[in-house]
Batch of 3 targets.
Target 1
Amino acid sequence: MKIYFAGGPGLKGKDYLGLMRGRRILFSFLERKRRVYRDLSLFDEVVLDSGAYSVATGKARVDLYEYADFCHQIKGQVAWYANLDVIGDYRASEKDLRKLEALGLRPLPVFHSGEPWEYLRDLQDEYPLIGLGFELGITGAEKLSWLEYIFHPPEGSGLNPLHKFHGFKMTARRMLKRYPFHSVDSSTWILGAKNGWVPTDTSQSNKFNYLSRLKKCELWLEFFDSLVAGA
């Protein structure tokens, strides 16, 4: 299982690059102008997110043609780039997918909770790797139930549980231990450190405030390395 470390740098550029150099990262189209992403060859592997979640929450707007131009610019430097999906409207997502394909691109399609299973079956017939994302407002129990259906589908569902999936924001311990994702991404390493948390054997703790943010980030990275290695 691969893990891509996401999240805009909450550290000084040199500290961020010191931690991320030689690692897999995910960065957003919305972060494309940050200096730390000028030389993508510094990283082991890079993938691009469209910023669809920020669009869905009303925090940003993304022009499809501007996004397409950027994908063309960097497509030789990234393992994949995600579709400009519309969370909550799979038909609009598919329209954007086809528009990007018509522009000569091959974006990663994303299937979200709440969308019809028939749409996932269609995607499995056409694409070797599919992104999985959660709809807004979904509960923890609903997330697990949805993933359970994907990776352990009932007989007759027509779904292929052995298909390759990338899980967007899916690095909860229970998810990584139970579901065989091809890859996942997480910003917990930077957000957890920013909020004062560090991982423990069973959960996380905020009792280590004497540690620097940089040290907390290092602990989160070590935690995810060991978690993915054991998944």
Note: Strands lie at 2-5, 24-28, 45-49, 80-81, 110-112, 129-133, 164-167, 183-186, 198-199, 204-205.
Target 2
Amino acid sequence: MVVTGPASAPCHHVGMRRTILLTAALAVSLTACSGSDPGSPPAPEDTSATVAEAAAATAPGTALDLGEAATLVWQPATSLTGTLDLSVDAVAEQSLSVFDGWLRDDTMARARPYFVTVTLTNTGASDLGGQAVPLYLRDDQGTLGAPWTLGGDFTACQSGPIPTPFAPGDAAEMCLVYLVPDGARIIDMAFEPTEGYDPITWTGDVTEPEKRTAKKTEKKTAKQERRAG
């Protein structure tokens, strides 16, 4: 398994989370590029598609439930505008044993893993293959964590960037791996393409590891039996 760590994050660097500043600004350029001849008039630029994409975007600050879709517009690169319909469908906390048999560094060994299932559709005009969606897990310590890229034969959750190619109209379901400090818990999932952007968020029930659920059931059953006795 190849572990490269999270691709990017929009704000503070935190050693545990390896978050980094995402420098791409969320902006739609409506200016025309000038020609190579300084004396020639500016070349016209067709911005109708880009303007339409921006107009259809879900408003910053929108709070959604798991399973609800948002239309996301951002700039993965200065010359590329991405538009996706994305829903965060499920969030499942994992036990560290999910990485048994795989190479783990100190960060992974001290972390609490989450598998996040998302569905995305390219509703724009650009191929977004290989791009990272700025979707972060926010924990109760206020930290934003980016998804980790896991390669090789880690079939439990093939976390990574958008599949290549990912042309207009393409759709995919993806599993993303997030790691948080062991003492922290998830608050929500947040689309935050730039620092200072009012994030679009998803919240809902988080599935707990099977062993923990079984222990809770055993404790509940024991308590009921004591009361009955």
Note: The chain has a mean pLDDT of 80.
Target 3
Amino acid sequence: MGSKLEGSIYDFDNTLVPTDKYIWKKFEEICEYSGKEIKIDRKELETGSHLISWLKRLHIPKWKAEEIYLSEIHSLNLFPYCREMLEYVHSLGYPQGIATHSPRCVVETVLDNNKALGYVTKIVSFDEILKLKLKPKPAPDSLLWLAEQLGVKPENCLYAGDTPEDIEAGKSADMITVGVAYDKGRIKRLRKTCPDLGIMTSSKQLYNLVRLLFSR
């Protein structure tokens, strides 16, 4: 890594916040409310890029889906050390953003509940992807748009994510990528994408890496 970092971008789900079980539970509740059932594998649910088509198939309005999804949002907390990581980078004056397929209301609510919203400069969420017609990850569109909003060059921006689609998007955007796999089951598939800075297997590892990189 020859260039000095100018900022950082993080994925949200399962990178900063453990949402796996919550998302699955809420999707089942949305299906139950609609009285319909559609088969979705966990990989599709992780990326979240088909949200609109799912809602159309379930015949449920977006506002109702968000209401169900937010009903127990207070139970979601940041992984250990993630708030401290965001606070540290912010304290040094570096811009940092979040790139996610989750709705903006979800991201902002969780960050605000965890007293971390003020540390994040900009968010690109499902709402922006839809409004700006950006291609979802693994396309680099949302990351490039966010880097521009943050005022950082992609090649001088760190990007951390937990799925192969995250790393592929980061590499396509020419960013410095780091994989996160707090669940051992994710390590094998992340290895295939060869993140530039390897794979962090705990949020403390990610915190320590970020501190090291931005203290140089």
Note: The mean pLDDT is 89.
